[in-house]
Specification:
mainly alpha, T2SS_GspF_dom, 14 helices, Type II secretion system F family protein, cell membrane
Length: about 325
């Protein structure tokens, strides 16, 4: 308390004004805390409101098991609905980012924005609690720490989702060659394209779960009445991979013009192997450039220390005498 009162005194330069500001801030914090607790205990725990929230999410009355969301999730969704961006372009970009990261829930956008809004507030509150424990802390340093906590809370969810997207796309990209080879074998053995996708999804359900889920979703969409071309285009949108986009374009042309799907898959498999070989050669050619920085900062100082160190010691001893 004394620390916060001292901060207000430094800002205002008047002790009485600092006390009034301190009392007002504490009163506002208490009112906000009471309102938050009332919303948690009364609003979300009300069975009628909870049932309405579940109906809006698409849950039926019997889905009260593991799929039903909890009170905290409903609260985050409400916060996200209030403060989420209303711009169509930004919402679409956020939805695409979450889809590529593996979050396909209808409430994923609301949850994402709710976490990005609430996490900075939580970290700022924790920073204000920790600041009095730091001795000899100036006002500028304290404000810098608070702003840093707010920035970390705002940027951490976006960085986490981006890293998750990159990791998921990396796993899908690594599993795609095996799926392509299995598709070639299945189509050449006489299976149709939907049955081929279903068989490949079954075979890869143990080793590559994410790609198997995506292929199973494509098969479910085809069974629901969506055309094979449209289902494959949605697969390319969900994954965000150029390799899948190229395969979808070739299969769409093959289905449209009536050419052999097996020949198309075989040609694309050969092209994909060539591209993988070129990518590996390109990565190998970049190794020499990437090794320059470790050599300069790690190996060369040790080399110069061993090579020139004894001579420098001898020079210093000679001129020191």
């Amino acid at each position: 308390m004394d620390f916060l009162l001292g901060l207000f005194s430094r800002v205002t330069g008047n002790e009485e004004m600092a006390r009034l500001l301190f009392i007002g801030a504490m009163s506002l914090s208490a009112v906000l805390a009471i309102i938050t607790v009332m919303l948690l205990l009364l609003g979300l725990q009300d069975p009628v409101r909870r049932r309405l929230a579940l109906i809006k999410r698409g849950h039926s009355g019997s889905s009260v098991g593991q799929d039903a969301p909890g009170n905290l999730q409903l609260l985050l969704e409400r916060v996200g609905q209030r403060f989420a961006s209303t711009e169509e372009g930004q919402t679409s970009a956020t939805q695409t980012l979450l889809m590529h990261a593996g979050y396909r829930s209808p409430s994923a956008i609301q949850m994402y924005w709710a976490v990005r809004l609430l996490l900075p507030l939580i970290l700022v509150g924790l920073a204000l609690l920790v600041l009095p424990l730091i001795p000899r802390l100036s006002l500028i340093t304290g404000l810098s720490l608070v702003l840093m906590a707010a920035a970390i809370g705002w940027l951490a969810p976006a960085l986490y989702v981006t890293k998750r997207k990159q990791a998921r796309q990396g796993r899908l990209r690594a599993a795609f060659p095996d799926a392509l080879d299995l598709m070639v074998v299945c189509v050449e053995s006489g299976l149709a394209l939907p049955l081929t996708i279903e068989r490949v999804a079954e075979e890869m359900s143990v080793s590559q779960v994410e790609l198997a889920e995506e292929l199973a979703l494509v098969n479910a969409q085809i069974r629901a009445g969506i055309s094979s071309t449209e289902a494959l285009k949605q697969l390319a949108v969900r994954t965000g991979l150029e390799d899948v986009q190229g395969l979808v374009s070739l299969l769409a042309q093959s289905i449209r013009f009536g050419t052999s799907v097996a020949d198309t898959l075989r040609i694309y498999a050969d092209e994909f192997r060539d591209r993988r070989t070129q990518a590996a050669e390109e990565a190998g050619a970049k190794i020499g450039t990437k090794l320059v920085f470790p050599l300069i900062f790690c190996l060369w100082p040790s080399f110069f220390l061993i090579a020139i160190g004894p001579a420098m010691i001898g020079v210093l001893k000679t001129f020191g005498k």
